[in-house]
């Protein structure tokens, strides 16, 4: 918006970690189980039950910190954060306040194929709370404690973002990194990744930040975008009228596209943080950090840029491939086999392969498709052995069956016919059977040639080589006219 | 044979030689309980039927020639803040009335696995907050040596029951002196173990960084045996628990000796803040150990002692305010009075007693922004200072000897209107709590009114073996600690 104002945005992203067990007990960490079937006295905060920190949670969080170039605190501890809500059975959340596990890093993300950077303030670990289920019919509220103790990381960013587009892109990149590291399912629709968004506006050129408002309860990338656009406009309107923005925490309602005040500055919680006495401070030895460092893969944004440069892929295609690890791995294996065709391979993967996977609700790894087979398929089309259309049929076959491309072509009888004699006979018979179209062509309706070509291909069962057939057809038609 | 008068170790020998059955042992203790309980009020809940069943089971096992497990057939009681599966656990609070834990504390499981027979749950000050056992919502336990007096607190039910022979031993819990204080008032032994020595899993938290479950008994062998069963790392359920180093071990067969043991008398404890009769008894015991057993008594000092009480009340109340915030009458325990428009406030207003409320308020205050730095953080610094001073004192001496309580047992109701006085009564016990050190209250005679006096021995972390050695040497010197055998 070029109205003299600038929007300033910072994110607080909560992501559930996909560790096997919960953060403070041995209960299974899983989504979607029947209410209150995945909980124990620790989850439900029963008197006398004590937390024990799950080392895998620390490991996962450190991985995220390393991926974002953070400083890892070798000595860290948990704190109690107090607030009262029935889904929090201890009336405090075990979190980190004074000494988060990771501090001061940077996220590289892409907007329109161009790299941008977002400062990471901190990443800390904490426990999730339960869920309240309101039953309108009986006007009762039930508590499901299954989510209590599900491990979370909270990623707090610097206020470096300047638009809803940037915020959405950054959030998407964080999701891709979580997936690339294999530490979170990052499914927004299941609430396994959620964002609070801090938004302020200020006159362009002003160094000091405006008064910020925090928007809570945002659980989709689209909603992040909509909430920011709405909030930035709301604040601009207030400022344009000469009003003053109060520091508020607001709840975003994505259905109604509005936000309502949850708390004003005066009502800010005093969380009464103090170090969790049930958990001794814990160390992350340098040796562990080094070992985890070695496990950090190339990040999606870096990979995207590399695909753009090395393979001349369009930014969107590069991002789509790089953002999904199975696709990126498949693509790179295929490109290694056939260096000349990265664009073609990318098109197949993002086009027909993705379409088939969607239709079958399958993952790439569940199929029989291998990089080798895809390369063979592309080569068969390039060599004119089969047509592009036939290639799609072959793909459908080899994606689900353990057969080679060659066998599939044979079995489906899709081998392309390029033999001039056979095709000549075919063309002549089509011309005989379609006098009206020939007459049209004679009358100067050149599109009739396309129609006739289509008939030829159809008559051949899709096997006629289109280029050879087209040139033969043209010759025969020209001959007729002379 | 009056089995209830015997120590657990003596009973074990009789069981081993088949001179008695577990059923007879159980019956004898229940008879003593039935005789004395109407006057003593030590129990909140008796597990009579389950105890008889377990005793019969033990007898069957033993009759079948199976080896007797360490505590098999031996009765025990637990302070009511130790969770016992499907057995009421109330912390003597109305807000936990009716609470049946779905799990047992690690110590309860260990006792169970060792074959001990639970006779019941013992009275205490609500949530272990108090020094008289009068803060129980349900009833006030009496001192078996003088029924008009308090047994001390907060493990008052445990101390009174052991002193009166209702039980040979029991488990209490000690945050700022809750095992040692009542042990001193009732004339029994009470150990606060090194922090981390005993799993806190299933101990309803008062102040997590200070709470420790501790054994109470009438003989040192019993005390050491019970401790050996309950101690040890429990890393899967309590991250603050740890394995004990070998030097903490105690050999009950070894001849007790304190020859050459350097015993420090801290001058801060021998002031007007402590009754002259108590000071005199402790000094006399020290001289006794020096002259008769070859111990070396050294006068020494721990300058920060005077700040310990304030630091203790700030830290423990801060943690208590956090730990007690979960009690809202929603998930378990007392339900809010029906028809209340604000059920949570109603449950808390009626469910917590005044001492618990006082500490919740104090703790909430010291953690609040604007007070945290000047109170809680300063208290934590003092705690570190005290621990450092102990460390340097232990370079000169092996163990420290102090009074356990500044007075003998006071009258029921006498101090109720004076909560500050009640807090002051922890001056002798809170310093060791803050430093995480093991401390043992040892009976050392009676006042002119016939009330027990206790001395406290404090050692470096994990010096439990040495504390038992000192206590056993003293026990031998004075010919054992008397129990209240009377009909009450």
Question: Which descriptors would you attach to this protein?
Answer:
heterodimer, A: 482 residues, alpha+beta, Arc Repressor Mutant, subunit A, 3 domains, nine-stranded mixed sheet, three-stranded antiparallel sheet, 16 strands, elongated, B: 488 residues, alpha/beta, Amidase signature (AS) enzymes, eleven-stranded mixed sheet, 12% strand, globular
- Helix-strand category of chain B: alpha/beta
CATH evolutionary superfamily of chain B: Amidase signature (AS) domain
Total DSSP E strands of chain A? 16
Helix content of chain A: 40-55%
CATH architecture of chain B: Alpha-Beta Complex
Distance between the termini of chain B: 20 Å
Low-pLDDT segments of chain B: none
How many individual β-strands of chain B? Answer: 11
**For the terminal residues of chain A, how far apart are their CA atoms?**
65 Å
Strand order of the largest sheet of chain B: 1-3-2-4-6-5-10-11-9-7-8
Overview of this protein structure:
With 482 residues, chain A is of the alpha+beta class. Chain A has 3 domains: 5-292, no CATH class; 324-412; 420-481, Arc Repressor Mutant, subunit A, CATH 1.10.10.410. Chain A contains 15 helices and 16 strands. Chain A has helices spanning 55-67, 164-181, 221-240, 286-293, 300-311, 315-322, 325-337, 342-360, 371-382, 388-400, 405-412, 420-433, 435-442, 448-459, 466-481; strands at 5-16, 71-72, 75-76, 79-82, 92-95, 102-111, 114-127, 131-135, 140-144, 151-157, 193-203, 213-218, 248-253, 258-264, 274-275, 282-283. In chain A, strands 2-6-7-10-1-11-12-13-14 form a 9-stranded mixed beta sheet. In chain A, α7 (325-337) packs across α8 (342-360) and α13 runs antiparallel to α14 (448-459). The model of chain A has no long low-confidence stretch (mean pLDDT 92). Chain B is an alpha/beta fold and 488 residues long. Chain B has a single domain, classed as Alpha-Beta Complex (Amidase signature (AS) enzymes). Chain B is built from 15 helices and 11 strands. An 11-stranded mixed beta sheet of chain B has the order 1-3-2-4-6-5-10-11-9-7-8, sandwiched between helices. In chain B, α2 packs antiparallel against α3 (48-63) and α9 packs across α11 (354-367). Chain B is globular, with a radius of gyration of 21 Å. The model of chain B has no long low-confidence stretch (mean pLDDT 96).
């Amino acid at each position: 918006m070029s109205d003299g104002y600038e929007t300033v945005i910072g994110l607080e992203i909560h992501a559930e970690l996909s560790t096997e067990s919960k953060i403070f007990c041995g209960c299974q960490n899983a989504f979607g189980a029947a209410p209150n079937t995945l909980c124990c006295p620790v989850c439900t905060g029963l008197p006398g039950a004590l937390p024990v920190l799950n080392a895998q949670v620390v490991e996962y969080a450190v991985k995220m910190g390393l991926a974002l170039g953070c400083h890892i605190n070798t000595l860290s501890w948990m704190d109690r954060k107090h607030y009262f809500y029935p889904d929090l059975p201890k009336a405090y959340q075990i979190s980190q306040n004074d000494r988060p596990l990771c501090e001061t890093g940077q996220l590289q993300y892409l907007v329109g194929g161009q790299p941008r950077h977002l400062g990471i303030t901190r990443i800390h670990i904490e426990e999730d709370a339960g869920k309240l289920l309101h039953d309108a019919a009986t006007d009762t509220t039930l508590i499901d404690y299954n989510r209590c103790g599900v491990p979370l990381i909270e990623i707090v960013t610097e206020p470096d973002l300047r638009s809803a587009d940037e915020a959405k892109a950054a959030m998407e990149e964080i999701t891709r990194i979580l997936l690339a590291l294999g530490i979170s399912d990052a499914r927004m629709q299941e609430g396994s990744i959620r964002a609070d968004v801090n938004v302020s506006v200020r006159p362009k050129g002003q160094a000091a930040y405006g008064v910020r408002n925090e928007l809570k309860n945002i659980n989709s990338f689209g909603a992040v975008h909509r909430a920011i656009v709405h909030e930035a406009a709301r604040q601009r309107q207030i400022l344009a009228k000469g009003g003053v923005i109060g520091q508020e925490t607001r709840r975003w309602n994505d259905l109604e596209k509005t936000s309502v005040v949850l708390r004003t500055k005066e009502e800010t919680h005093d969380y009464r943080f103090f170090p969790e006495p049930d958990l001794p401070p814990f160390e992350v030895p340098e040796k562990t950090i080094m070992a985890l460092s070695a496990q950090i893969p190339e990040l999606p944004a870096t990979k995207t840029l590399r695909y753009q440069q090395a393979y001349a892929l369009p930014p969107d295609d590069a991002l789509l491939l790089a953002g999904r690890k199975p696709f990126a791995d498949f693509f790179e294996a295929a490109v290694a086999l056939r260096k000349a065709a990265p664009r073609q391979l990318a098109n197949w993967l993002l086009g027909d392969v993705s379409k088939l996977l969607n239709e079958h609700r399958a993952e790439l790894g569940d199929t029989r498709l291998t990089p080798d087979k895809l390369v063979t398929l592309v080569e068969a089309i390039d060599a004119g052995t089969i047509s592009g259309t036939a290639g799609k049929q072959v793909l459908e076959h080899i994606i689900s069956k353990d057969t080679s491309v060659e066998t599939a072509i044979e079995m489906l009888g899709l081998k392309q016919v390029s033999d001039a004699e056979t095709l000549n006979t075919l063309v002549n018979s089509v011309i005989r059977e379609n006098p009206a179209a020939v007459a049209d062509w004679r009358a100067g309706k050149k599109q009739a040639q396309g129609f006739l070509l289509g008939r030829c291909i159809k008559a051949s069962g899709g096997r006629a080589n289109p280029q050879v057939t087209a040139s033969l057809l043209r010759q025969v038609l020209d001959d007729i006219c002379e | 044979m009056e089995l209830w008068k015997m120590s657990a170790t003596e009973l074990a020998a009789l069981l081993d030689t088949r001179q008695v059955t577990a059923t007879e042992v159980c019956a004898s203790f229940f008879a003593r309980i039935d005789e004395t309980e109407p006057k003593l009020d030590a129990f909140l809940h008796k597990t009579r039927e389950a105890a008889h069943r377990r005793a019969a089971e033990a007898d069957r096992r033993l009759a079948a020639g199976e080896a007797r497990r360490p505590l098999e057939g031996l009765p025990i009681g637990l302070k009511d803040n130790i969770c016992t599966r499907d057995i009421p656990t109330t912390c003597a609070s109305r807000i936990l009335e009716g609470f049946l834990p779905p799990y047992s504390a690690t110590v309860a499981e260990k006792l169970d696995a060792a074959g001990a027979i639970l006779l019941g749950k013992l009275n205490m000050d609500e949530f272990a907050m108090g020094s008289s056992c009068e803060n129980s919502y349900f009833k006030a336990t009496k001192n078996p040596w003088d029924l008009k007096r308090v047994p001390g607190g907060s493990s008052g039910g445990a101390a009174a029951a052991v002193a009166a022979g209702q039980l040979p031993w029991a488990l209490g819990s000690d945050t700022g002196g809750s095992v040692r204080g009542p042990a001193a008032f009732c004339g029994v032994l009470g150990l606060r173990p090194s922090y981390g020595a005993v799993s806190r899993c299933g101990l309803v938290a008062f102040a997590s960084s200070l709470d420790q479950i501790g054994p109470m008994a009438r003989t040192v062998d019993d005390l050491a045996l019970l401790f050996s069963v309950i101690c040890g790392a429990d890393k899967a359920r309590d991250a603050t628990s740890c394995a004990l180093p070998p030097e903490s071990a105690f050999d009950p067969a070894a001849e007790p000796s304190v020859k050459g043991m350097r015993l420090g008398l801290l001058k801060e404890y021998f002031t007007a803040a402590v009754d002259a009769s108590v000071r005199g008894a402790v000094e006399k015991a020290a001289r006794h150990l020096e002259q008769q057993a070859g111990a070396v008594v050294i006068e020494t000092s721990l300058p920060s002692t005077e700040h310990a009480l304030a630091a203790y009340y700030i830290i423990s109340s801060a943690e208590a305010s956090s730990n007690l915030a979960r009690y809202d009458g929603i998930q378990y325990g007392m339900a809010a009075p029906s028809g209340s428009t604000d059920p949570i406030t109603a449950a808390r207003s009626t469910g917590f007693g005044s001492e618990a409320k006082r500490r919740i308020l104090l703790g909430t205050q010291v953690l609040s922004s604007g007070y945290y730095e000047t109170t809680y953080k300063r208290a934590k610094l003092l705690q570190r200072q005290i621990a450092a001073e102990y460390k340097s004192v232990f370079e000169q001496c092996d163990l420290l000897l102090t009074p356990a309580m500044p007075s003998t047992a006071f009258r029921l109701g006498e101090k109720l209107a004076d909560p500050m006085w009640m807090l002051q009564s922890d001056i002798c016990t809170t310093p060791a709590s803050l430093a995480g050190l093991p401390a043992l209250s040892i009976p050392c005679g009676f006042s002119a009114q016939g009330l027990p006096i206790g001395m406290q021995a404090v050692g470096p972390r994990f010096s439990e073996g040495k504390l038992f050695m000192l206590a056993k040497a003293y026990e031998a010197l004075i010919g054992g600690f008397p129990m209240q055998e009377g009909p009450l």
